[in-house]
């Protein structure tokens, strides 16, 4: 079990530090808060769990795409203006 800081995780995965911080804040990514209360927050991230979570999220995205995909003609936006297509 290897634990990294946000900066180290960013370098290891290619994700921005901002994305990792926001993901932790929203509960999207697993992390351990080792900071001093609300003022100074510092996190350690288990890189194996983090990479596993990234894989889960990418698989969720792949399965969600066919259900959400719908083709809309670029000319549909002209209908409200009275143009006949």
What does this structure look like?
The model has no long low-confidence stretch (mean pLDDT 81). With 85 residues, this protein is mainly alpha-helical. The longest helix is centred in the C-terminal third of the chain and has 22 residues, at 47-68. The protein has one domain. It is built from three helices and three strands; from the N terminus they run βααββα. The N and C termini lie far apart (60 Å).
Give the proportion of residues in helices.
Answer: 40-55%
Radius of gyration: 20 Å
Please give the domain count. Answer: 1
The N- and C-terminal alpha carbons lie at a distance of 60 Å
Q: Tell me the structural class.
A: mainly alpha
Write the layout of secondary structure elements.
Elements: E1 3-4, H1 6-13, H2 17-25, E2 32-33, E3 43-46, H3 47-68
Antiparallel strand pairs: 1-3, 2-3
Summarize the structure.
With 85 residues, this protein is mostly helical. Helix content is 46%, strand content 9%.
Spell out the key features of this protein:
3 helices, 85 residues
């Amino acid at each position: 079990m290897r634990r990294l800081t946000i900066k180290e995780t960013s370098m290891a995965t290619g994700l921005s530090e901002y994305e990792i911080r926001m993901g932790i804040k929203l509960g999207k990514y697993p992390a351990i808060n080792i900071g001093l209360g609300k003022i100074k927050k510092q996190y350690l991230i288990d890189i194996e769990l983090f990479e596993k979570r990234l894989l889960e999220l990418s698989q969720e995205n792949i399965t969600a795409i066919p259900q959400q995909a719908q083709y809309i003609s670029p000319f549909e936006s002209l209908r409200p203006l009275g143009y006949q297509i």
